[in-house]
Amino acid sequence: SDESCVSGKCQKNTCGTGQTLCALGSCKTLNGTDKDNCGACNYACANNPAPNATSNTCKDGVCQYTCDTNYTNCGGVTAASIKCIKTTDLQTDSNNCGKCNNACKSDESCVSGKCQKNTCGTGQTLCALGSCKTINGTDKDNCGACNYACSNNPATNATSDTCAAGVCQYTCNTGYKNCGGTTIASVNCIKTESLQTDPNNCGSCGTKCTGDTPVCISGVCSMGCPSSQTACHGQCFTTSILTSMFHMKEDCSCDTGYENANGNWADGCEATSGGGGGGGEGEGEGEPDPGA
Predict the structure, then answer these.
(1) Taking residues 67-82, what's their average pLDDT?
(2) What average pLDDT does this structure show over 72-78?
(3) 232: Cβ–Cβ under 8 A, 6 or more apart, which residues?
(4) From CA 61, how far away is CA 72, in angstroms rounded?
(5) Share of the chain above pLDDT 90, in %
(6) Cα–chain center distance at 163
(7) Per-position b or e across 56-66, b if 16+ CB within 10 A of its CB
(8) Alpha-carbon dihedral angle through residues 193, 174, 49, 97, given to the nearest 10 degrees
(9) What is residue 255's DSSP assignment?
(10) Contact by Cβ (8 Å): 232, 248
(11) Would the CA dihedral through 81, 205, 191, 286 be positive or negative?
């Protein structure tokens, strides 16, 4: 309880009350308003968007989210509770007709933001005056709700152009692997190349590396890093060149002007637009054999 994990090693927490040692000499208040260390070391709210929402503030160690432009929040402000729906959908959404949480009766439909008596046949819904649609079938332009077009509602790194039983079915974008389901709530698209470095999906989806400092190298779990190396993002890097070659700090975050642009931690951080120098010159230099 008096130690923190720094660069893959347990270190005595020398910080004051309420603070956590996130890197040697770097104490952070995780349960406050630090948007770059919100609830955990190096957990930046801006790097963890929710569906159709982003966050740039932290409160009590929890990122606070706001909906993107042209979306209305019909939920809370945390990643788990925020519910951003297209503002235009308030005109047709029977659960949010005209405003959030205004549900129409079972024999009504939401037309132009008002609940109207459903005059359609069995299994159909009145989507506009004189326009009846089967929303619980395969209509990709009225999937689960009137005018809910699957193609207009992408998930993170995924798109949909098909509907099954009134639910849009998603596939990952090129260069991504689906480690989840096919609905907007369950699809989990991660960069295919990250399977080579992700200790939670090492080599394949769901393959988790174990141990105190789990490491994934070239899609194979390793027991840990040698004493001359630092464990960062499931990889081993030679400590002496962590900054000069891989552009990372001791806490494993990227140096100013750099970011993990290609999603592959094996080659460190790359220069952002306008940043100085190129990233990843030391690709592979800090990595031990997978069996190390």
Answers:
(1) 94
(2) 95
(3) 7, 8, 242, 248, 252, 265
(4) 24
(5) 38
(6) 24
(7) eebeebbbbbb
(8) -160
(9) P
(10) yes
(11) positive
Instruction: State pLDDT tens for residues 227-285.
Output: 788 878 777 888 888 888 888 988 888 988 888 887 777 788 988 865 554 444 344 44
Structure tokens at 73: 């929040």
Phi/psi class of residue 278: alpha, beta or left (left: φ > 0; alpha: ψ in -120 to 50)? beta
Q: How far apart are the first and last CA of the chain?
A: 29
- Which residues, listed in sequence order, are joined to residue 190 by a DSSP beta bridge? 177
Q: Let me know: does 221 contact 200? Beta carbons within 8 Å.
A: no
What's the residue count for the chain?
292
Radius of gyration of the CA atoms of the chain, in A = 24
Distance CA 77, CA 209 (A): 33
4 pLDDT exceeds 80? no
- Indicate yes or no: pTM above 0.90: no
